[in-house]
Amino acid sequence: MKKLLKWAAVATVVLVASLAVIYRAVNRVPSETLSPEERVAVIFDDGGCVSCHSENPKLPFYAELPVMGKVVKQDVDSGYRAFDITAMNEAMKNGTAVHPVDLAKVEKVVLDGRMPMAKYYLVHWGSSLTRAKTDIVLDWVWNTRKAMYNDAVCEALAAEPVRPVDFSVPVDPAKVALGKALFHDPRLSADNTVSCSSCHGLNTGGVDNEQYSDGVGGQLGGVNAPTVYNAYYNFVQFWDGRAATLADQAAGPPLNPVEMACESFDEIVAKLAADKEFSKAFCAVYPQGLSQETITDAIAEFEKTLLTPDSRFDLYLRGDETALSSTELNGYELFKKYDCATCHVGKNLGGLSYEPMGLRADYFGDRGLELTNEDNGRYKETSLERDRHRFKVPGLRNVALTWPYFHDGTRATLEEAVRDMAVYQTGVSLKENEVGDITAFLYTLTGKVGGEFLTNDNSK
Ligand code: HEC
Ligand code: HEC
Ligand code: HEC
How far is CA 262 from CA 257, 270, 447, in A? Predict the structure, then answer.
């Protein structure tokens, strides 16, 4: 009996060892003669990433089997919901820029050793990310990111997913002056009571600190007002991305019935044209005269100046090691550890992609309020089921000043927003000290305007 056990043990060891040898032989590192992109593409190909991260993947035969097929389909559905790899594959093939959010997501799952999932690589031999493959992917991510930005970040932090705000971007000062005046001009509203700054106070963090904004006649909107500070960095404007540019965006509120409630831009042009002094100054800069196009162009030009550089976090990124306390630094580490920096990336810590609200838990079910059309998010624009409850990720610059939080304005404090983000987006219940540290880090994102830290008059 003892002998038999011994033999069984030896046989098992031999079997496992030879399996390991075969496994390694199958799981080969792509040839060094390939370019870094090509090597990563081979690794992703072998990893089966496309099978679970694209719209219409070719699935294996067992996807049609009753029990196993269900598991496969579930993985494919939630994989595609979390991440679409199509654009990244195309970019790598064509040698064009890979999206910074895709880069951050891939970096994170590879750092954590989460992809492909074990149940996949145990069946698909050669697909797992070995140490060597992981190194190839991470080197590629970091080098790509360094090449993507030309901002002055200290060498040690050059591959971070988050970047400092620019000190300024090129603008036409004459247009900026006009845009600034228009931004504060209530004549853009039907009854001359509401200006852009009524809802986007520049002394109140670029927001109104209301759950929903008051428009003309005290009418309430159905979605929380985001800040205009650093909106320049957003890849599209509005929670649902329905405006492609700042100028497109600026054409929205004046005609929105619950915001500024004008019938048409003609109404606004007529009022402004009657102001001889203003229209003379305007036509000196825009010889084509007052129109929707020129008015919104001037406002957009002004909004390019609403950047908030020099936050303490940016000082840190630029190399000042004393800029942050150990609590704040730990908060930044936790921000990366818990996946926050896979959606909140770049100069604005967000504003670069649409992501589902409630990726890992049922946000809308738990909220308990009736669903509104606004809750549909990007779906309102595309009618694609994948876009339901998907929102443009808000930037987190100056977030300490822009309460309440979320598109529905249901979270009064930053601590609540942080705690709930962890639950709904990353599936983690943070410890209270972790909530505190991440919040402390977010406070360091408050930047400067005209050399002074932005404050919020409403907090006094
Ligand atoms: C068998 C299906 C499957 C394969 C193969 C697979 N994934 Fe995933 N992937 C998933 C699922 C499911 C999720 C969602 C996980 C969750 O929500 O908990 C996911 C999530 C992700 C995410 C989003 C980040 C996140 O944590 O939600 C990225 C990025 C990702 N996978 C990259 C990859 C890459 C790169 C590969 C190939 C090396 C790969 N995946 C292979 C199923 C798969
Ligand atoms: C009545 C309040 C109100 C007024 C007036 C108003 N806004 Fe807004 N603003 C909002 C709300 C609410 C949203 C979010 C709407 C949405 O996403 O559907 C928003 C969104 C924006 C955004 C998009 C920011 C982002 O991150 O997506 C910008 C930029 C902006 N407004 C600028 C302006 C400008 C310029 C004006 C004047 C022409 C203006 N707003 C007038 C309430 C207002
Ligand atoms: C999968 C992408 C994703 C991840 C991961 C993620 N977020 Fe978010 N975050 C979003 C989206 C989308 C919203 C807007 C949700 C809404 O308004 O309904 C948001 C909103 C926020 C807000 C509120 C901002 C505002 O102005 O209302 C804060 C604060 C925030 N996130 C912090 C975090 C933190 C901290 C983490 C990590 C624990 C995190 N997020 C992880 C996508 C993400």
Answer: 7, 12, 34
> How far is it, in rounded angstroms, from Cα 336 to Cα 315?
18
The two three-digit tokens of residue 384, written as one number: 């694609």
Ligand 1 surroundings by CB, under 6 angstroms: 44, 47-49, 51-53, 75, 78-79, 82-83, 105-106, 109, 115-117, 120, 360
Q: How far apart are CA 228 and CA 167, in angstroms?
A: 16
Contact 374, 223 (CB under 8 A): yes
Express each pLDDT in 53-92 by its tens digit: 998 888 877 788 888 888 888 889 999 999 999 999 999 9
259 is catalytic: yes
pLDDT digits (tens, 9 = 90+) for 276-329: 999 999 999 999 999 999 999 999 999 999 999 999 999 999 999 999 999 999
Cα separation, 136 vs 130, in Å, equals 10
Across the range 200-206, mean pLDDT stands at 97
Contacts of 348 (CB under 8 A, 6+ apart): 165, 230, 233, 234, 395, 396, 397
What residue's CA is closest to ligand 3, atom 36? Answer: 340
Ligand 2: list residues with CB < 6 Å: 183, 188, 194, 196, 198-200, 213, 215, 221, 223, 225-226, 228, 231, 234, 237-239, 246, 249-250, 253-254, 259-260, 299
